[in-house]
Amino acid sequence: MINSSKTRKTFTLLIIVSLTLTGLFLLWKFIPWGNTTGILFFFTGLFIGIVIFAAIQYFLIRPSPARVGGNKLASHLDELVYSTILETSSDSFAVVDLTGRLIFCSPQTASLHGYDSPGELIGKRAFTLLPLKEILRATKYMQLTLQSGMIKNIEFTLLKKNGDPFIAEVSASLIKNRSGASIAFMVTVRDITERKWVEEQIRESEARYRIVADNTFDWEFWQAPNDRFIYISPSCKRITGWDATEFIKNPGLVERIIHPDDRQHYLLHSVATKQNKTPGEIEFRIQRADGVERWINHICQPVFDESGNFTGTRGSNRDITERKIAEDNLQQANEQLRLQLSEIEQLQIILRQQALHDPLTGLHNRRYMEEGLRMELARAAREDYQVTIALLDMDNLKVFNDTHGHAVGDKALVLLGEKLRELTRTDDIICRYGGDEFLIVLHKTNLKDGFKRVNQWRKAMEDLRIPHEQLQLQITFTAGIATYPFHGRSLEQIIKAADDALYEAKKKGRNIVMAPDEPT
What average pLDDT is seen over the chain? Predict the structure, then answer.
């Protein structure tokens, strides 16, 4: 397309040049050269003309702000187009250096190969995305790209992150620097797994068609462009219960025997295949002459003569009732299996819960505590902080059980556990250690603060009551505490120190807290 702005400027410049030359000619012709004034007048006019010509030429040739802004806008649009292509294209784009390492890849590249982000792929060798059998081919095509500058639509088997293979078309082109030296490859990958699957299905359909054409066991037909049947195989009577002559006499019989729920689907298929003149395949139900319902697999394709004229539709109908019954049975079995697996998963969740929790109080059990305490002590040693544990013994549980029954004793343990859960922090570990004992791991707590906190719990428990018959039964506890690393560095040592403190507390009475070393 001709640049109209540039044309106008050129035309204007020619006019100005012409006028300037004409003016100079007239000056030359009519100026009186015999005196000094005439000569001065001529050169003054010549100077003014040159200045005007230079000014006009400058304003015509210099780039306008609009043009400069337009260049910036064009550059910005180029970036937007490039970014949009990378973000919206379903194809994968990657840049591979001459040694075979990935130095750039689009988000689609990561998604295509099952990676979370492009960063996981940067720096990897591109050959890691290929199975062993394809590496030699890839090397050959790299050399071909270096020689010819480009390869297009080469089929490769590639690998996902988890090792699953998929089929793709790969194109590559050389990237060169300003001096013309090759520096990298631009690689485009398109996943054609689905396309290959479709092609395979079409090949299988064509194979089935050839088998059917050679074997008239199925219901074969040839239908003219006006929908009348040119040929129907005798096997239609075995499948439908109607003789072939019935369909030839009455082409509408096919539509009439199709199940009402499938009739619209069949009609849409029939119209589409005739308009598009393409092969088609659907499944539908028919009602036989004896009223029995059967499933039909219907395959058809257009027929053309040597001149390319459409001469009708050739097709085959196969009874697939037994297959559909088997599929339904398999689907039901799969659904039943899914339900059973769901029940097993729920049972496993319950078992895991029971394995790590006390069934009465719902608190963590001793097994969980030991593992959690080992991890806490290891972290404390690594990060250099203190951990305090408190070993609590509920007071008078035997009296509760013997006097008021085990149900009341169990209720007292549950209430004590709930109160401890309420008073402890999220980072603390609380468990039922066994019988009437509870063990609490106080995260990042020294002996003084631990002693203070456990005493606060003890005082809070004094207000806790269990209503039983006409009584209000009080719940209290006695506790011993110990702190890592001052009272031990192993799980066994720290628990023993707390247990010794608890034993001393019990000797001095009930409802008290003691530590191996009293806090100052």
Answer: 83
How many residues can be counted in the chain? 520
pTM for this one? Answer: 0.38
Cβ neighbours of residue 479 closer than 8 Å, sequence gap 6 or more = 390, 391, 392, 393, 454, 458, 502, 505, 512, 513, 514
Cα diameter, the chain: 149
* Nearest-10 crossing angle of helices 447-461, 406-423: 130
Residues sharing a CB contact under 8 Å with residue 254, sequence separation 6 or more, in sequence order: 247
> Among 350, 454, 467, 452, which Cα is nearest to 411's?
467
Percent of the chain with pLDDT over 70: 78
Q: Is the pLDDT of residue 278 over 60?
A: yes
Q: How many other CB atoms sit within 10 Å of the CB of residue 409?
A: 22
In which region does residue 168 sit, left (phi positive, over 0), alpha (psi from -120 to 50) or beta (all else)?
beta
Q: Which two tokens stand for residue 137?
A: 């081919």
pLDDT of residue 462: 82
SS3 for 150? strand
What is the three-class DSSP state of 194? helix
pLDDT at position 214:
47
Beta-carbon contacts of residue 343 (< 8 Å; ≥ 6 apart): none
Q: What average pLDDT does this structure show over 196-223?
A: 72
Nearest-angstrom CA–CA distance, 408 and 260: 69
Confidence of residue 398 (pLDDT cuts 50, 70, 90): confident
3-state helix, strand and coil shares in percent for the chain, rounded to the nearest 5: 55, 25, 25
